[in-house]
Design a protein that fits this description.
4 strands; mainly beta; four-stranded antiparallel sheet; elongated
Length: 83
């Protein structure tokens, strides 16, 4: 069976907001032209007619930055301590 192609598609799941009303109602991910994105969604109500709609925010997934470890310092036990 061929692997499913996720290009140009995404998914949202109901999010546990806990006690923070600013957290998104839905969270998920999407792929657009090979680029990966995190998606956040909030259910909002129109001021014009009261109809509900979904407001979305897309953020590029960032690669985990690997910082080089600082070089290990070598100590010379024979050196004189100045204090």
């Amino acid at each position: 069976m061929p692997e499913y192609d996720n290009t140009n598609s995404g998914v949202l799941f109901k999010n546990d907001k806990g006690n923070n009303p600013k957290r998104p109602d839905y969270r998920g991910s999407a792929n657009w032209n090979g680029a990966e994105f995190n998606i956040s969604g909030w259910v909002k109500e129109s001021k014009k007619d009261g109809s509900k709609f979904l407001s979305l925010k897309f953020e590029p997934k960032k690669a985990i930055e690997t910082r080089p470890k600082p070089p290990k310092q070598e100590f010379d036990d024979d050196s004189e301590i100045p204090f």
